[in-house]
Structure formats: C-alpha cells, structure tokens
Amino acid sequence: MESTMKDMRDGASVLDMDPKCTVGGGVEDVYGEDSATEDQLVTPWTISVASGYSMLRDPHHNKGLAFTEKERDAHYLRGLLPPACITQQLQEKKLMNSIRQYQVPLQKYMAMMELQERNERLFYKLLIDNVEELLPVVYTPTVGEACQKYGSIFRRPQGLYISLKEKGKILDVLRNWPERNIQVIVVTDGERILGLGDLGCQGMGIPVGKLSLYTALGGVRPSACLPITIDVGTNNEKLLKDEFYIGLKQRRATGKEYSELLHEFMTAVKQNHGEKVLVQFEDFANHNAFELLSKYRTTHLVFNDDIQGTASVVLAGVVAALKLVGGSLADHTFLFLGAGEAGTGIAELIALEMSKQVKAPLEETRKKIWLVDSKGLIVSSRKESLQHFKKPWAHEHESVGDLLSAVKAIKPTVLIGSSGVGRTFTKEVIEAMASFNEKPLIMALSNPTSQSECTAEEAYTWTKGKAIFASGSPFDPFEYENKIFVPGQANNAYIFPGFGLGLVISGAIRVHDNMLLAASEALARQVTLENYDKGLIYPPFTNIRKISAEIAANVAANAYELGLATRLPRPENLVEYAESCMYSPVYRMYR
Q1: Per the annotation, does 252 bind a ligand?
Q2: Residue 460 in contact with residue 478, Cβ under 8 Å?
Q3: 3-class DSSP assignment, residue 471
Q4: Which terminus of the chain, N or C, has fewer Cβ atoms within 10 Å?
Q5: Predicted confidence (pLDDT) per residue in 106-118, tens digit
C-alpha cells in the first residue's frame, strides 16, 4: 500500500520519514498530526487517496471552505463547495459566534460533537484556543447531562461498544476499529457516571469526552485514541423502561460473568494493541474499580482516573496551597467526606508524598488523615465491617456519627469532599473549620455542580473570606467585602492528558505511584505568584498545553529513572520532545 502511495506523488511526506526518527513514542505519524510535522505536505490517504465527495465526508481530512484553489483542482472538489476560500481562523470565529448563540449548554455540547464528526482539526482548534469557555461544554458538568440523554441525542456511534453479546469475540471486535496505532484507550462500564449513578451504555459520553481532552490538552493524536464502553446491562429502572435506551435491556452482570468478560477484554487489548497501550478505567463502581486496578496494574499499562488522577490533581492543589497556609504537608491534618474511589485514592497519595518528604513509614503518615463515610468517622472499632480499601484509614478514636461532630473532634486544617452528595458542607461545618483555622483549605470535589459539597459563595461567605477554596466543577469568581475571590478548579483535566502523554512519549510499560507524585509536583510548580495573589492554587487553563508538556516530561523522566521506559535513547530535553510530539490542529496542505 505504502509503495503505491509513493509512486503517486512527488516530494517528501511524513510517510517517507525513517520510523526511528518519528515522534509520538516511536509510532509513525501517518496523518501528519504532531507539531513536528506541521510544515510537511501530507497525502490525504484513507483506503485510497481521499478526494471529491468522500474527502468532504472524512473528518480527518475535511477542511470545508478552507480548501485552497489548488487543492480543489487536485482532489476533484470543484463544484462541491461554494467558491469562497477562507482561513481556519475565520472558520473558528464564525463557529464560536454560532456556539455562543445557544443558551442551553446541551445544545453547545451537541454542536461541538457534530463539528468533531464533520471536521476534526477545526473541532480541536476551537477547543484548544477557547479551552476555558469550552471545557465545561465538552466535559463536566455538561457531559453528565449528555450521558443522561445520550439515547435521545445519539446520532452516529463514536468508539467501540462491547457487550455481553460479544463474549468470546472481543478480539474480533477490537479489530473492527479502523485505526491500528492505538496509544490510549478510555473504557467505562457506565455504572458510576460522575455523581449521577448507573447510566449503562449511555456512559459512552465519558470516554469520548476524556479522549477529546487527551488530544486538546495533552496533545495525544486523535487517531491514537479509542473510546470503549463495556455494556453488561444496567440496574437503572428508568433506562430499562426507556424505549430510546441504546444498551442491553437487562440487569447488570456480576461475579464470574463480569470478571470473565473484563479479563477477555484486557487480554484482547494487549494482544491487538501491544504492551504499551494505556488503558484508562473510567467511572467504574467502587468494588470493580479497585479490583481491576489491583488485578491488572502488574501486567498492563493501566490507570484509573477516579482513583489516581483525582488523587494527583488534589495533591498538587494541597502542595501549592502550602505557600498560602504555611507549614509542610506533615504539619496538616486532613478530613475527608467520602471514602470511595476518589477519597481513599487521594488520601493514599497524600500519605505517600508525606512519607516521602519526612521519610516516615506509610502507616505513620496515614494517621494524619481521617475519613468519614455514610456511617460516620472511620475508626478502628468499625474495622471488621469495613470494605478492604477503607481499613487502612481506621484509626483509634471514639465513634463519631456525623461530619460536623468529626470536624469538631479532629480539628482538621484541610477538608476534602468526595462524597458525590451535594450541599453536605453545611454552614455549621464551614464555620467550625473557620473557627480554628486562620486559612482553612476547603475542597468540594464532587461533580457535576449540583453534587458539589458546597458552592464557592458559601465557602467564602461562611468563613468571612478566610477560606482557600477549590472545587471539582467550575464556579464563577465571587466578590466578598470588596475583594474578588477566584475559586480554583481541582479538575482531573490538569493531570491525565499530560500524564498520558508522558507515558506515550517514554514508551512506558507500567504505571508506578512515583509517576503520580511526579505529575503532582510538576503541576504544583506551575502556580505563579500572580495566581497566589488571587487565592488560586491551580494555574489557569489557558496555559494547559504548556502545563501538560511539563507534566509529561516529569512523568517520562520518572519512567526512565524507574527503568519502565522503552523509548530509547532518552531524549535530551524531555519538555521540548513532549511539545514536538503534541497534536497540532492546524490544517495541513494537501498535495
């Protein structure tokens, strides 16, 4: 196939590049997607050279009215487009004006998804250049509503759907995907979508949204990304009765049937895509999330964003906040509301970083961290009845039945919410935090906005402007007593795109906890004095690609130090190398 293509054209293309010199973890850049290939001529190749009507229907190659006069002649586009030739910048301006006309966020989401299906590069150009405005549209909080209504707004499939019907044939299903050089897979079973519960097959909006961010924020090629939903049924009665539901209409498979399907999937992924493909588990229920991560972390390159990604971004915020509140990590006491995937994952990473800093055993540093679940403070007297992942957090203390009593008893300096239950940081709880802390750090992490433990306005008002506040979903700046407070957003999108890019460019074969610490440290270093002056503990998203490159470089450096990287020799400047590997949405010129 390749020789045929070379006979059809003159001049050099990315396809002529020596594979040893190509970027992106050693995977050849066939479509001309990376920053390093921006100035090269590209042949718009599908099964044959794309031209005419088929080219306008191919989102990889379609440029709409931005096709030049020369390209229109070369690719049989005359008459198929209006005569005007416009720039990508003008297309972007027109589309942003159009999107801003919509009053309903879900309409903006649908407009963006339609654009992604029509013109891939323009979609990413919009998202990269308008990241702070469009991030809440393509991801949380709007993606939650999109998943709830996915059956109604479903137009054409994105990604792979693997259901119980495909048991025994999963390898064949994976081979149905047209792209071969897959580097990142995001997979969900839809059982715990954000704070919205079991949405079954309609959870596909999450892998699609996450991978859009892998590309826009982390620079991973779109052609290297594969969203997957594993449909084992749903226990959501409303969906089971919904005539428009797109998934299996049966109760969820559990136990042996579930684990066998997942094992077949993980085995097939490795067989089809190799050792270095990153599999990100997304929005699995607690019991399955911990089990899958534990089972496959020693045999596959796996990452759970709910457990590890959330932990890394929160740790970065806490480390950055130390410059505002003072002291070291070990000087602070932490109290969590919520002891599921996110809560225990964050707690473990904080304890790990504390252990590293003070060179104390992990068992000792865990004692600085307390968790409250639905039954109250987790204490040693409850140990026998606790799930395995909660047991390390059962410390010696008398029983405490609710959050307010726990705050008064423990007197934490940092309060973190990961409960998935809205408005649980009540006025009494916040006021108690302010009564014994000069600058209480309050992090209301649950998504979407409706599930946030408190709002930014409540945190600032109830602490009389003393709080340092961050949340999972975005809140607008708030004015209190003539001072503008800008709430930080502890969004996983700070971490996972750069983290994934770091694994890809180093050719890592396993994820190590030290890589998560490296990502947190890199993110915390990006917070400037100007950010601190506004009370921010995270940098603005406008710099996210630079931030992702720094994170990727730090993660890759760690992979090399641990002997887990296969991309050799190690690049001299990892930040520059990461930037050269990043996807560029600028239109390519077609010969």
Answers
A1: no
A2: yes
A3: strand
A4: N
A5: 999 999 999 999 9
